[in-house]
Amino acid sequence: MDSHTVLFGVIGDPIRHSRSPIMLNRAFRESGINGAYAAFHVTPDTLEKAIAGVRALGFRGLNVTIPHKVEVMAYLDEISDGAKAAGAVNTIVNDNGRLIGYNTDGIGYVRSLKEEAEPNLSGQTIVVLGAGGAARGIVWALAQENPAAILIANRTEAKAVELAASFSPDDRIAAIPWSGLREACSSADVVINTTSVGMSPNIGDLPLDPSWLKPGSVASDLIYNPLKTAFLQQAEQLGCRVHGGLGMFIYQGAYAFEYWTGQPAPVDAMRSVVLESFGK
Ligand code: NAP
Q1: pLDDT digits (tens, 9 = 90+) for 22-70
Q2: Which fold has domain 6-103+247-277?
Q3: From ligand 1's centre to the CA of 135, what distance in Å?
Q4: Which among 226, 243, 228 has a CA at the least distance from the CA of 121?
Q5: Residue ranges per domain, the chain?
Q6: What's the whole-model pTM score?
Q7: Measured from the CA of 134, which atom of ligand 1 is nearest?
């Protein structure tokens, strides 16, 4: 670091578990960019001041994580279409003092799904389990891939109905009742768990019965702790192709890196340093 170092960071509450600093600092080093990325513990009552600090100190970019992804939008100058559709911002670019908010979670997920499991989503039937914050951006990004249908099921059905309705008049996107999941999964090409069911420490829990999926279809899980959830392990044994959540984390960071620097992200190096941090 020297007096030309360009600054980046991530804000959240809590934040000390974040693997973004090791991933992005490795990316800067790998790409020969004089940048530095740190984690900042910002509580909701100091969010506005933190964003003012980004402007005052001339940070080039910021990632935003729980619980600030929605509230931060009020302090930015511009919001991208994808972030508007997702209703949340996870990446800020400081363009000569103008703060622009993006959402790279959904597009990061889809890039990872295409590179790691299913390159062509066009014409496919996709079941999305869950209707929380992550599901919203993912459904928007999936819809850009021209699927035949995106069927959303959620424990609290009203949230699935609301999420599907927010894409109206796109009638490829519909809510289905939890009781209709078995039938929907039996003819789906891709089934995605966006709920937190199966996340550490409850690693034995299943979001749905993997035997409902058709062999050869893709079972995908947003969870990356553990790297392969019980849902994915069992789906794999039943002949499904499986896709874990680590790729989403890597590619949401890769898109952020690319928006900030204009250079392709060194994805392999980013993945390997994150895997190392898991002791793999
Ligand atoms: P969120 O907004 O809190 O939504 C949680 C979702 O899980 C809701 O749909 C909720 O249903 C459902 N759910 C929770 N417990 C359930 C249960 N026992 N049975 C059935 N459904 C249940 O959380 P989020 O931000 O969307 O995150 C969801 C998951 O995605 C988390 O595991 C998170 O770690 C993961 N994630 C991964 C990445 C990545 O980079 N790989 C990024 C973001 C999130 P109700 O509406 O009925 O409560």
Answers
A1: 999 999 999 999 999 999 999 999 999 999 999 999 999 999 999 999 9
A2: Rossmann fold (3.40.50)
A3: 8
A4: 243
A5: 6-103+247-277, 106-244
A6: 0.93
A7: 26
pLDDT score for 278: 87
Q: Which residue in the list 69, 84, 214, 228 is annotated as catalytic? A: 69
Q: Whose CA is nearest to atom 23 of ligand 1?
A: 132
Indicate whether residue 131 lines ligand 1 (CB < 6 A): yes
Angle at 43 between CA 37 and CA 45, to 5 degrees: 130
Q: Which atom of ligand 1 is nearest to the CA of 199?
A: 32
d(CA 94, CA 111): 24
pLDDT category, 279, cuts 50, 70, 90?
A: confident
Q: Is the CB of 223 under 6 A from ligand 1?
A: yes
Atom of ligand 1 nearest to the CA of 224: 41
| 49 given a catalytic annotation | no
Is residue 157 a contact partner of residue 188, using CB atoms and an 8 Å limit?
no
Please enumerate in sequence order all residues whose Cβ is within 8 A of that of 165, keeping only pairs 6 or more positions apart, or say none: 175
Bin 200: left if φ > 0, else alpha if -120 < ψ < 50, else beta: beta
Which homologous superfamily is 106-244 in? Answer: NAD(P)-binding Rossmann-like Domain (3.40.50.720)
Ligand 1 pocket check for 103: Cβ under 6 Å: no
